[in-house]
């Protein structure tokens, strides 16, 4: 019997026993997310650092922001055709990743740069007109 068919049958049995969402719990372990990201938050800003080694054409990287979601699409290609792979830890290939942001961000104030294999994305909190707090200055009135 074909070993791939056996693996498929085994997975179907596990899905039936544990439920269809069973494998979702293991997705980060079985197949780690690419690209790797770090996300940092201040009161009104988010700063995302994305690991994309070997990027030579910035047109092959697509960065989208929609309200409270950051979406990354592209490819990690490490061009090294010398010999055969003995050990491979740097994940490669086409990726599509969606990151939920902790708050909505402005679409008109985004800065993205690339240097030394890292993409830096700076996002600013969206403060709607209905929830904006404006500090009111209080002036002292002189007695006349």
From TrEMBL:
CDD domains: ACD_sHsps-like. It holds the Pfam family HSP20. Residues 28-141 form the SHSP domain. PROSITE patterns: SHSP. It comes from the Bacteria. Gene3D superfamilies: 2.60.40.790. Belongs to the small heat shock protein (HSP20) family. This is SHSP domain-containing protein.
């Amino acid at each position: 019997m074909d070993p791939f068919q056996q693996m498929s049958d085994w997975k179907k049995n596990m899905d039936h026993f544990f439920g269809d969402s069973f494998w979702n719990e293991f997705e980060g372990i079985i197949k780690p997310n690419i690209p790797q990201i770090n996300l940092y938050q201040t009161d009104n800003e988010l700063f995302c650092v994305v690991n994309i080694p070997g990027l030579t054409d910035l047109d092959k990287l697509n960065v989208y922001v929609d309200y409270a979601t950051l979406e990354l699409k592209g490819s990690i290609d490490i061009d090294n055709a010398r010999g055969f792979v003995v050990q491979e830890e740097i994940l490669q290939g086409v990726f599509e990743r969606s990151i939920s942001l902790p708050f909505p961000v402005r679409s008109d104030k985004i800065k993205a740069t690339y240097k030394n294999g890292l993409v830096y994305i700076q996002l600013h909190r969206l403060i709607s007109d209905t929830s904006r707090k404006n500090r009111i200055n209080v002036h002292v009135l002189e007695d006349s």
